[in-house]
Amino acid sequence: MNGFGRFVADAGRLVVQPRMGFGSPRLMRDGLRAVRDAGVCTVGTITLDSYTRVGSHDTARAALASGADLNGYPIVAHPVGTTRGVTAGIAGADFPVQVRHGSALPQDIVAAGIAAGLFATEGGPLSYCLPYSRVPVAEAVPAWRETCRMLARLRDTGVEPHLESFGGCMLGQLCPPSLLVALSVLEALFFQRHGVRSVSLSYAQQTHPGQDAEAVRALRTLAREHLSGDDWHVVIYTYMGVFPRTPHGANSLLAEAARLAVRTGAARLIVKTVAEAHRIPTIEENVAALRTAAAAASGTRYAPSTEDTGILAEARALVDSVLELDDDLGTALVRAVALGFLDVPYCLHPDNPGRTRAFVDRDGRLRWSRLGTLPLRGIADPASRHDVTSAGLLHALSHVERRFDDAAIEHDLHALPLG
Amino acid sequence: MRERTPGLDVVVTSLASDAHTWNLVYLQLVLEELGHRVANLGACVPDELMVAECSRRRPDLVVVSSVNGHGCHDGARVIGLLRARPELAGTAIVIGGKLGTGGTEGARVRAARLVAAGFDAVFEDGAGVAAFRSFLDRLQAGVRV
User: Fold this and answer.
1) What is the pTM of this model?
2) Chain A residues with CB inside 8 Å of B124's CB?
3) Per-residue pLDDT at B3 exceeds 60
4) What is the DSSP string of B47-60?
5) Looking at chain A, which residue has its C-alpha nearest residue B30?
6) B12 near B39, Cβ under 8 Å?
7) How far apart are CA A347 and CA A399, in angstroms?
C-alpha cells in the first residue's frame, strides 16, 4: 500500500492535481504546501521549465544565476539537497508528488527526481517525442526503456514507482480520440513490459463531451484487456488547446472536465486555471482551480457512456495493428510511426509521416478528414476531403475557446441590471 | 498584381527551448496562402540547426515564432549567431509570439531589445497577424525592386 497510483486508487473520490512549477525553490515549496492544504483531495506537481525539458541544464543554471524568469522548476540544475528541501515535510504517503517534464530523453530528469525522493513522473516514448522534440523515435524508445528500468529498480527499496502516459494529449487538439486512446494504451503497456507496474493512462478533454465520454470508456476497456495487475487508473487532462480568456469561460470548461472525469470513472484530473490563456498562473489561481474542479466533481455521479460512434473499434484496430508489427513493443512503435500506422495530424516532428488530417465537424466532434496510411480503412469513415486553410485552422483551434467565452459573455450580459 | 509577384522563400522556425507547434502550422498556412514558399523547421530548433538551415537555404525571410515565454531571452541570443554569418547579415529576420513570461507587460521593452539585437521587426501576441501581413507586403515590394 504505497505509491502515487495506490494513493489515487484508494482516494475514493476524484483526485485533482495542478500543473504547477516555479524556478524558485521557495515559491515551489510554497506552491506544494498550498496545494496540499487546498482542502480538497489533491496530489502535488513539480512541473519543470522548458530548458530542463530539452536538456539545456547550463542555460537553466545561467538563468537561475542571473535571476531571469523560468517557466518551471529546473530539477537538474538545482542541487538535490535543494529539491529535498522543497518537498521536506510536505511530500509523503498522504501527499504524493509527481514530476511533470515533457522530455523525450528523460533519464537525467528522472534520476534527479529519484535522488530527491520523487518516484512518480509521466511522459512516454511517443507522447513526449513527437509533439515536443526533434529526437528521433528510434532514440526516444530506448531512452524510455531505460527510464522504466530505472524506476522499476526502485521496487527493491520498497518503493512503488508510478508512470503516467501522456499519450492522451499529443498536440492538445485536433487529434481524433481513437488515436489518443491507442497511444495511451500502447505507452502504458510499454511501461509495464519494462517493469513499471503502477501506471496511468491519460485522455485530454477535446471538443465534445459525448465524444469524450465514449473515448474514456474505450480507453478503460482496452486498458482492462491489455494491462496487468490492478494498479492502473485513468487521468483526465482539462482541455489542452486554446483556452477561454474569460474567467467564467475558463471555469466552465474546467468544471466540464471534472464532470467528464467522474462520469467516466476516471480517478484523477489535471486542472487548468483562469490564467491559462494569459500567463503562468499564480499559486492562488492554481488552488482556486483545484477547488472549482473538486466542487464540480462532488455534484456529479458515475454514468458510463453508452454511445458508440466507433471510437473503440478504431482504437482497437490501431493498438492491434501496432502490436502485430513486432514482439518487442519498442520496435513495433518505431515501425508503426515509419509505416504511418501511427500518424499524428499536424505534427511537425521529422519522423511523423504527416499524412493525416482532422477537423471539428458541425456537431463539434473531432473527425478524420484524411487517414493517410493509418490501418483504419473500412473501420473509420473519413469525411470528404477539404483543404485546411489558415482561417479554418484558427477557427478549429479556437472552437472550444469560443464556445465557452461566448457563453460567458452571454452570462455576464444576463447578469447586467435592467434599466 | 499579386499573381505576377514571385513569392518569398521563407523559413519558419521555433526556438531551442520552445516545443509549441500550432503557431508554426498556422504561420505556414498564412504564408502559403499569400503565395510564399515555406520551409518549416518545427519545434525545439537548436541554435546551430537554425543557423545551418538558414545559411544553406538563403531565404528571403526568417520568421521566428515562440510562445513559451523564453522568446525574448532565446531570440536575443540566436539573432547574434544568425547576423554573424555574412550571408545572413542582410536577411529579413523577424520574431513574434508570446515573448515574455508576464503576458503583454514589458512588450515594448522587449521589442526594443530584440530590434537592437538585430531583428527587423517584433510582433508580440496581441498585435495580430495584420501587422505581420503588412510587413510582408512591404518586404515583398522591396524584394521586387
Assistant:
1) 0.91
2) none
3) no
4) HHHHHHHHHHH--S
5) A390
6) yes
7) 19
